[in-house]
Amino acid sequence: MRLTMVGTGYVGLVSGTCFAEFGIDVTCVDKIEDKITRLKKGEIPIFEPGLEDLVAKQVKAGRLHFTTDLADSVKNADAVFIAVGTPPRESDGHADLKYVHAAAKEIAELAEGYTVVVTKSTVPVGTAREVEAIIAKHKKPDAIIDVCSNPEFLREGAAVNDFMRPDRVVIGTDSDRAAAVLKEVYRPLYINETPMVITTPETSEIIKYAANAFLATKITFINEIANLCEASGANVQHVAKAIGLDGRIGSKFLHAGPGYGGSCFPKDTLALTQTGQLLNAPQTIVEAVVEANKNRQIQMAERVIAACGGSVKGMKIGVLGVAFKPNTDDVRDAPALTIIPLLQEAGAHVIAHDPEAQEEADKHLKNVTWVENPYDVSSDADAVVIVTEWNEYRGLNMAKIADQMKVKRLVDMRNIYKPDLMRELGFHYVSIGRPDVDAQDQTQGGLKKVS
Ligand code: UDX
Fold first, then answer.
1. Which residues form ligand 1's pocket by a CB distance below 6 Å?
2. Nearest atom (ligand 1) to Cα of 258
3. pLDDT beyond 50 at 69
4. How far is 401 from 43, CA to CA, in rounded Å?
């Protein structure tokens, strides 16, 4: 089995490497020469735990190749995956398919014999049919090409594991022959009894958007419930735990915080609303989610300002975490990129730390003082704000932080510290959806009164 992966971005690189781990001969192709040169040297352009070792292992085993030359690999491939970017168009937020269309045309011109072309990029409903039409127009007369949709559900920071142990594999195709090829590609998972949903391309494309939009909705829902908890003295963590114990709701994605970010949720929710408008099936719930999440990030800056007594003018504010979540250097739509500029506009000087994302964030932010040691954000600070819940922030010596600060104010947007303990250390402590003075402690077994 030979496979070509077009695009060595996040999805292409992780998927291609994991397919090689399945024992398939994989060629990853990218137009950017520098990227391919670096990959050949084992330099991984993204921070993704476990990926570097896996790439090295597969290259050494001779199953994973990198090239800028599409021709050779496509000619010999049983399946060609399109994993190029689909950024939102600036004009209307709709997913821009120009790279997908260009890749489809190039593949069609090169493919020989029977080839399955698979859209792995997140693409709006109807794209597989468009790709089919492009291929029909440009393919060699003798070539037989089937088109499939096979969305990914990889979380950054956990992508390798998500690929190897997925909740399900979705294959959208009208062709039994193409479905058989993809079942073969995913054989190790098939043997593991990973559920396979084999459906039409349209359904497969909608599954991806529906999954992400649902998760984004769940987060936004709990964020609004957190506001209600704050207004009424209730505790959102207890609410989340209790509703999550209902099997119909489930406990995941109920952590209240500063709003979702990342490369998928913001882009996919927006694209879904656009598709809904276009097909006259408005997605009003998701439209509200998009709006609420945008406001959420702004409200987080206002929360810091309120915690500082209504003004941050001339204040020194320490920010812990700028990545949109831990274990990634990705800052796309990260709450920190909204919060920090708003604090600066209000007159604050921001000192920030992130274990991995400083370089990426620095491209989008101005006048931030970066520090290498998380403790340094607190030195002489008027407030410290935890925006990303990196593990290394969970075990900080908070007494030391308190000692270094000019005024002991802590805004914990990820609820990683306990309100009563922070109060004991002298902090004015603000968290999300939890009463300042918390009489309850959440223990492994359930909820327990703390005397
Ligand atoms: C997501 C999907 O999980 C994945 O299946 C899809 O293919 C790509 O998009 P990712 O963007 O990597 O993955 O991160 P994820 O862990 O899902 O978190 C997304 C955002 O939601 C982050 O900003 C995170 O902080 C936030 N989040 C998540 C919450 O605020 N609360 C939660 O309970 C969960």
1. 152-156, 212, 215, 219, 253-255, 257, 260-265, 324-325
2. 30
3. yes
4. 36
pLDDT of 442 higher than 80:
no
Supply the pLDDT for residue 450: 36
* 99 CA from centroid of ligand 1 (Å): 25
CATH class of the domain at 211-441: alpha beta
Domain 2-199 homologous superfamily, CATH: NAD(P)-binding Rossmann-like Domain (3.40.50.720)
CA–centroid distance, 37 to ligand 1, in Å, is 31
pLDDT band at 90 (very low <50, low <70, confident <90, very high): confident
DSSP run (H or E) holding 104: helix 98-110
Nearest CA to ligand 1 atom 10: 155
**Residue whose structure tokens are 């300042």:** 436
Which of 157, 195, 200, 149 is CA-nearest to residue 389? 157
For residue 159, the CA-to-ligand 1 centroid distance in Å is 12
pLDDT at 230 over 50: yes
Give the span between the Cα atoms of 73 and 3, in whole angstroms.
Answer: 8
Residue 308 known to be catalytic: no
Give pLDDT, residue 121.
87
